[in-house]
From TrEMBL:
Organism: Halosaccharopolyspora lacisalsi
Name of the protein: Imidazolonepropionase-like amidohydrolase
Domain of life: Bacteria
Sequence ranges assigned to domain Amidohydrolase-related in this UniProt record: 56-385
Keywords: Hydrolase, Metal-binding, Zinc
Molecular function via GO: hydrolase activity, acting on carbon-nitrogen (but not peptide) bonds; metal ion binding
One Pfam entry name: HUTI_composite_bact
Length: 401
């Protein structure tokens, strides 16, 4: 089935491109034409027309860091550990659909057990469920009783590292996740600043994963772990909070930042949608400012960013991704155009996705129709009229006439 979507403006991406009185033509799950309405409309042959007067069409959003197995409420870890597979599968599917209805057409899950997210991914890909494009890591690699050991990815030594990567590849993992440093929320595990793997082990992880054609996402808070991950050649660094040893505060190392930029490694800061409350209650003023300083310092070094929320952690809900993006506009001070670019074509590139993140012929029909102009006010992204995921509507069909 063909669908023709017309609107006051189309933002096809990357940043800077804008088509006034534009149109997008979709055939099945793929975009076949994008341009001024007067040029595209004649190509529409018996298409379903949707007109968004006063609206904007842009690519669907990408959230690069979530955990769909977790329900974003307090006590989520206890519920996760008590849930059987059937409960988790339904929860994963439901939360993926929540994200989709909020405009997120691609979600990258960075840690679950037994690759359950990958089974939901396959159900969506088969068309059994409407949902976003899912990428999943399966169980992250972590040392025995290390950060997030309860996902089932504990490894010790070369053989177990190799076996786990092969096992995750066999589950169909799209990315290998390695917990290069400690983290929060895992009792009796190494502190956040502490490295969990040697530089040699991280290099082995990257070598094995890349040999299988799979990129690597490294969770790293500590500066030592960040440096080792960069040298190992991971593809994305999650959190990247530059913590010095023994909680000594930020330890920013220019030579490491230069290496991250030179290798094209993307950094995912992973901040929740309600970042204002999170900063006020959890982080505090001083650490919030330090986080901003780090982002600006990395930006000065030319490091590219990819947005994510760590969705599933308490308060990091799945249905307000636009809230998370507003951090980069309201706190960091970047333009809406830059942030939209980061959350669409930039994120797709960082995640190694071809034909995603832009509106162009041959690209996936993942798109968002909103009221107003998000380039003038990024919160216009909240005013969603229609979300298409590979051509399928995630919102009520009556939303756009
Ligand atoms: Zn995470």
């Amino acid at each position: 089935m063909q669908q023709l979507i017309t609107a006051d403006q189309v933002l096809p991406g990357p940043a800077g491109q804008r088509i006034e009185d534009g149109a997008v033509l979709v055939d099945g799950d793929t975009i076949t034409a994008v341009g001024p309405r007067a040029e595209v409309e004649p190509q529409a042959d018996d298409a379903r027309h949707r007109t968004a007067v006063g609206g904007t069409v842009l690519p669907g959003l990408v959230n690069a860091h979530v955990h769909l197995s977790w329900d974003a409420g307090f006590g989520m870890l206890d519920r996760y550990r008590a849930a059987d597979d059937a409960e988790l599968l339904l929860g994963i599917a439901g939360r993926a659909q929540q994200a989709l209805r909020a405009g997120v057409t691609t979600l990258r899950d960075l840690g679950d057990r037994d690759g359950l997210v990958l089974r939901v991914r396959d159900a969506i890909d088969r068309g059994d469920l409407v949902g976003p494009r899912l990428l999943g890591s399966g169980p992250p690699l972590t040392p025995p009783r290390g950060h997030c050991w309860f996902f089932g990815g504990e490894v010790s030594g070369i053989e177990e590292i190799r076996d786990r990567i092969r096992g995750n590849a066999a589950l169909g993992a799209d990315v290998i996740k390695v917990m290069a440093s400690g983290g929060e929320m895992t009792p009796d595990s190494p502190p956040t600043w502490q490295s969990q793997f040697s530089p040699e082990d991280l290099a082995l992880v990257v070598k094995e994963a890349h040999a299988a054609g799979i990129p690597v996402a490294a969770h790293a808070h500590g500066t030592e772990a960040i440096a080792a991950a960069a040298t190992a050649g991971v593809d994305t660094i999650e959190h990247c909070s530059w913590q010095g040893a023994e909680n000594s505060g930020s330890e920013l190392r220019d030579e490491v930042a230069r290496e991250i930029a030179a290798r094209g490694i993307a950094v995912c800061h992973a901040y929740p949608p309600d970042w204002r409350t999170f900063q006020r209650i959890v982080v505090g003023e001083e650490r919030s400012q330090a986080a901003l300083d780090r982002i600006r310092w990395m930006d000065e070094h030319g490091i590219r960013f990819v947005p994510g929320t760590d969705g599933g952690l308490p308060t990091s809900v799945f249905d307000d991704y636009v809230g998370a993006l507003s951090y980069y506009v309201d706190a960091v001070g970047w333009s809406p155009a830059r942030v939209i670019d980061m959350a669409t074509s930039g994120a797709a590139r960082a995640l190694g996705l071809d034909r995603v993140g832009r509106l162009a012929p041959g690209y996936a029909a993942d798109l968002l129709v909103v009221d107003g102009d998000p380039l003038a006010d990024v919160t216009a992204l909240h005013q969603q009229r229609l979300v298409l995921a590979r051509g399928r509507a995630a919102t009520p069909e009556t939303a756009v006439g």
